[in-house]
Amino acid sequence: MYSGVWVFVEKGSDGVNPVSFELLSKARELSNELGGELTALCFGDSGTVQTASLAEYGADRILVVSLENDLLNNPEVMARHFSAAINEKKPSVVLAGATSFGRTMMPIIAAEIKTGLTADCTELAVDTERKILLQTRPAFGGNVLAMIECTVSRPQMATVRPHVFKLKKINPSKKPAVELKSYPIPEKRIATVLETIYEEETLDISASDIIVSGGRGLGRADGFELLQRLANKLGGALGASRGAVDLGWISPAHQVGQTGHTVNPKLYVACGISGAIQHLAGMRGSDMIVAINEDPDAPIFEAADYGIVGDLYEVIPKILEEVVTSTR
Amino acid sequence: MEPLIFSERAVNILVFLKQVPDTQKVKIDPVRGTLIRKGVPSVTNPFDESALELALEIREITGGRVSVLTMGIPDSENILRDALTLGADEAFLITGSDFAGSDTLATSYALSNAVRALSPFELYLFGKQATDGDTAQVGPEVAAHLDIPVVTFVQSVRKVDERGMVVERMVDNGRQIVEVDFPVALTVVKAHKRLRMPSLAGIMDSFGKPVQRLGSGDIGVDVSKCGLSGSPTRVKKIFSPKHQTAVHFIEGSSEEMAHGFLVILKKEGVYG
């Protein structure tokens, strides 16, 4: 019988990608409702596994699938070992972060196992009567939310958007059982990563708690200098709408929206952004949205928690005057 | 960086296209939870346009054929016609009620069977995702069914030669340079170059090129693995992400608004 929830533990820049801890935190709740154990699935060797952290975020068990170090950046190889582990252990639910890695590996697994996979979920819940996972995800660029279920096939698989679930530590009553497995997988022809080039961290705006974003309403490229000053003061990153990027005012690395970054910061300040639906799709998940715009009818105000109708070139300098240097 | 392309072997490319509703005018069947496509303007998925442009650029240098394929309602022939005017050599439309309601598993099963039924290709190109479903799953799933390598989120091609390619892909915190042999599937992000416009000659040429229609019998699928019956996932319900609370306007002079802004940031604990 299929039972238990698995969370894929993704490697991060220092140890574990935070999305894996977010997923464990949520999966702990789901596991309690579904009944069954919560397993953290790691790749590599048992020496590198952060047992204590995984237990703190709720893992009952840790399954380590042994894999050579130089294959740990390869989603195709990992998918095949992952599939072998699923076929042997038969978990009921398998979750991974909707990172570029997770969104490559999980579809390969789903096709191999021939089960359902729901992409980029923003909410997970349990139908307690039927003991199945209810997976909610945005579609059509965030215009609608769809609740998806995988009624018959097992496991029920989903990738989950980073920064959606809050980290929640528990007091583990016992040490998790750690099991080391190795699966003989015939070698396959795969893509080989020759080189990974890490961009400066300042460019990963989706990791920032505060984003100050500008659009066409800035009227000119150097408007971003003003926004950068505000972002610096607040300890945040600089974002932009597609309109501003298309005008060449700022590089695409800053673009928020359907064809740019999806961000869920604690604070999103939209300056001179009208609020096209494609932009809203990329920032709607922010905890708090403040919009500054001259047009009181701009659609951005429908998505905003707070609005300032006014000239950003007047208001923002006043904010800068009043603000003391950020303590962040 | 300009791609270095020096293949002496013609590269045959199959580009997967999807017709998507204009995302701003989406409608949903409230009863069945499926998409209503009638009355909503349809376009080629923008990421698939990038894939098509990449295919046409590679062909200019390596030679070979660019074929396009879609699965959908008969009306999606339109996006294939558009691709033919841009210079695609041949077009295939997989259509029929057997395929209606397919999720990503059923879609990728059908597409991979179509690939097997058509002549062999070296390169399979997908947009990284479609703007209606936004799943980004069909490309990798087709590759898994075909048991060929896949490289996702490709943003540029650095090299094509007889054996394969070197491409650059986007990852969350940077870029990767990836080498892979043919045959291979790539999913591509939005290109820096927009899709070309059709030429008059291209439009004239396209009239001579048929769109071949393929049904479940033509591509040798098990119909129980197609469409709704072959889809393990079900849409339970569709709803709007309505904003719960109305916007609260901060009013007054510039100074007062600036002050109000900071007060709220402090109150909400995001600053100060």
Mean pLDDT of chain B equals 89
CATH topology of the largest domain in chain B: Rossmann fold
Fraction of helical residues of chain B: 25-40%
Assigned CATH superfamily of the largest domain in chain B: HUPs
> Largest interface: which pair?
A-B, 90 and 81 residues
Shape of chain A: elongated
How many separate domains make up the residues of chain B? Answer: 2
Element order of chain A: H for helix, E for strand: EEEHEHEHEHEEEEEEEEHEHEHEHEH
Unreliable stretches of chain B (pLDDT < 50, length at least 5) are none
Report on the biggest sheet of chain A.
7 strands, parallel
Tell me the count of domains of chain A: 2
CATH class of the largest domain in chain B: Alpha Beta
Describe this structure in words.
The complex is a heterodimer of chains A (328) and B (272). Chain A has helices spanning 18-34, 51-56, 75-89, 102-113, 223-234, 242-246, 277-283, 300-303, 312-322, and strands at 5-8, 11-12, 15-16, 38-44, 61-66, 93-97, 117-121, 123-127, 132-139, 144-150, 156-160, 177-181, 192-198, 210-214, 237-240, 267-271, 288-293, 306-309. Chain A is α/β, with parallel strands linked by helices. Chain A has two domains: 5-181, HUPs (Rossmann fold), CATH 3.40.50.620; 201-322, Rossmann fold. In chain A, the strands form four sheets. Chain A has a seven-stranded parallel β-sheet, sandwiched between helices. A five-stranded parallel β-sheet of chain A has the order 15-14-16-17-18. Chain A has a three-stranded antiparallel β-sheet with strand order 8-9-10. In chain A, helix 3 (75-89) crosses helix 4 and helix 5 runs parallel beside helix 9. The radius of gyration of chain A is 22 Å and the shape is elongated. In chain A, 54% of the residues are buried. Chain B is of the alpha/beta class and 272 residues long. Chain B is globular, with a radius of gyration of 22 Å. In chain B, helix 3 (104-117) crosses helix 4 (138-146). Chain B folds into two domains: 4-230, Rossmann fold (3-Layer(aba) Sandwich); 242-272. In chain B, strands 1, 2, 5, 6, 7, 8, 9, 10, 11 and 12 form a ten-stranded mixed β-sheet that branches. Chain B has a two-stranded antiparallel ribbon with strand order 3-4. Chains A and B meet through helix 3, helix 4, strand 7, strand 9 and strand 10 of A and helix 3, helix 4, strand 8, strand 9 and strand 10 of B.
